[in-house]
């Protein structure tokens, strides 16, 4: 398998996935091991070749793993065969592909005493069958036909099979008897034979398939550290439950480990969860389960001729793992009832796709476990009746609530949506007409292929699993022909009469042909996007019309009342049976209890927490001045430097020239160039920031006045302004450090040196392919260091968004708004940031509790609501370690009660990351941040991934690097801004001298202690450093990872360091 061919093929044909599916959502991709051999087992196989493309695309995008899939040998021809060779697929011969109808019929002569003996009527087993081959029984009534291996041929009309067949259908087919229960057992044990006059059943026979070469290829790929993907059901199908798993997946895993027990093979289950897999613009969730390894005792059994037992136990492990990532139901009707129950239990609130899948899975497990319970039987009947009424009215469940709208609102909404539909049709109709032949062809051919697949299969129900594949194949072949035809016709008309004179004569016809290849696909794509929105609007019109119609409105109102009653019934049944299935039912809910107004517990007492367990608020600590330099400590606390304008060093001109500038300066006490009003408490950072802002404003005002009086060119004016601003800011920053005792840049963080850190620290990344947009420009002349506001505590609020209002405190109903209105913490300034950290329900809903991250405490607090913010500030944040506190453990409560919260106590836990990187992505404030943050994140992850340190937003593995987007932090003109919070000696290599290592050698990262386990006894000290960088470009990311993130060093301090703190040294930049 060639890497570049694999990547090129996948990159090209992944476009098909984006066009066919509206959304493909990966879930749990952080579980995928980044190195070592992996056997991916994916199910259900509901979309034939599309499944493989979706799986390979997801693995490459999310984990950068290339996987070779096992593909049916009969499919390795034509385009599919060429594509499979590009991606390193392994062809596999399957018995069902070579099965042929056999002559005669078969039956079980003694199904009770000798269930492995089969006799035939008019058969010729000696010619048609062979030992090791298989017998296939036909499917019936939507039930999969059974298959079994042949172990012995006794004659032309008698064979023996390896194992007895099980189940009601095969027993009925082979005996013709009607005294068989659902498990395939005979109720009349006295009667030994088949039904009188029964002639047997038709069947198919397949030859023995030698898979030796296939297994050898798989073993070699896995032993070399590669990845293999397999759909263990053996073939695609459109059933709602998993098919029995084939033994091949177990043989591959056990065989690899038998040859190389120390290869580290892991098995990763993959759930291919589709919503209408065969439909255009449907959705999918690809869920990755926890990887697991085969126990050594099973490998020993496999090596010691106990293969059947080892393979059986391995298959059980794989099936159990797949059950945790898939949704299975015995039939389509039950699945529809489960989905109806999920919608009714959710009370109409839109859930993200992964949560929908998880909720469906839990309901499916519950309905299966309690299927004989009278409450479940009654509920299922009610749900079937409700679904039947929806189908009768031809509406969807979420549209039932339209019945609550009054008549004027319904009329207005209907007219408004019709108007929108008419506007959208302008963009839809041209593309729809142009692409109509392709739509028609794909529909006809896909349905024909579905019928053919159904006729040739023993497991399919309607053959829908092949429809998506054929739709894509037909479109790929027919669309280019159609576009070429349109382009030729257009070019011909231009050549003939310049398109009836509308095209200028100087336009050549060949240029029109090329333009046609651009215009026609663009029109089609526009129709796709507009049509997608228009179809949603079109589907919403029918319930509005029903609300207006006198004959139907009553039916809709009755259905709404029926829905409300059924919703209460669903919630009651789930709440009654849920605690029996889950011991910690209340805490493992995916959504709040819909029957409660508050959605959960309202007080510690209701939650079963005694009053004495609720921590009391601590005394307010006084503001400390420890960890500052001696020059700062020597200053009296009540000293005020309010007359800074009188100090000569802050004048824009030397004192000797100040008199001549007095007229333009506007006067002021001791001012030599511009007025500076008196400041108060200038020994504080707020005072210095105020001074900086006023100085800049005065400089701009004076510069504008001077430019109006002079004749300087714009270029010279800009240079003079930049030089003056840079010089003033440098002097001002130096004065601030002298007055406040802040550390110099060289004192704050160690800086890289070639003799210590190697020559690599002098060079940018030469493999970086990510670039900023051409017109992306930032301010390059101003000195950066010390030009930031100080802070004591930094709070990140999870919003699942990457952009916010200009001021996040204006986000109505949010936790940020509550922080803006609450009293300030008693331990210093709080820096508040909205972030793209995922909310518990993975959507930006301020009506639901969210999560925050407190820094430098490195603590995650869950279940935070706006009313709980005052308690959070008083009882936790004011007690948390600050940027100026020594690096010592602080005892903090694990639960934070709030009498105002309606969802129970807030819960605190350590952040699992060793480093947290924050990138400003606030596009509303400055477009450059919205452009730079995703590019920098992508490049950081590219360098972190080989180290195993990259973490997705929902990745909770300890010891990695979390990268989050935040709102405005100040200094957008210095984009990209990056804050790096590090735990003490985050990876155990802070003191390593890379220059002393051998060429190409990298220091070994030390595995950190688990903050919740081994290290919990000593206490969590939080972040030791925060390194604030600016002007970060993609080519800087390699050295930022190597030196800043891994070792706490700064590479380009003179150009990029804005400031920060080091609690270990007791120094700050302010």
User: How many β strands by DSSP?
Assistant: 26
Mean pLDDT: 82
- Distance from first to last alpha carbon: 56 Å
Overall helicity? 25-40%
Q: How is the largest sheet built, in terms of strand order?
A: 1-14-13-2-12-3-4
- Which stretches are poorly predicted, pLDDT < 50 over at least 5 residues? 597-684, 709-720, 736-740, 1010-1017
Total helical elements: 28
Structural class label = alpha+beta
Q: In angstroms, what is the radius of gyration?
A: 35 Å
Beta-sheet strand percentage?
Answer: 5-15%
Main β-sheet description: 7 strands, mixed
Q: Tell me the overall shape.
A: globular
Description:
With 1070 residues, this protein is α+β, with helices and mostly antiparallel strands. Helices cover 40% and strands 12% of the residues. It contains 28 helices and 26 strands. A 7-stranded mixed sheet has the order 1-14-13-2-12-3-4, sandwiched between helices. Strands 5-11-8-9-10-7-6 form a 7-stranded antiparallel sheet. A 6-stranded mixed sheet has the order 16-15-17-18-20-19. Strand 21 (915-920), helix 26 (927-944) and strand 22 (961-966) form a beta-alpha-beta unit. Helix 6 (212-223) packs across helix 7 (248-259), helix 7 (248-259) crosses helix 9 and helix 10 packs across helix 11. It is globular and about 100 Å long. It starts with a helix and ends with a strand.
Quick tags:
single chain; 1070 residues; 28 helices; 26 strands; alpha+beta; seven-stranded antiparallel sheet; seven-stranded mixed sheet; globular
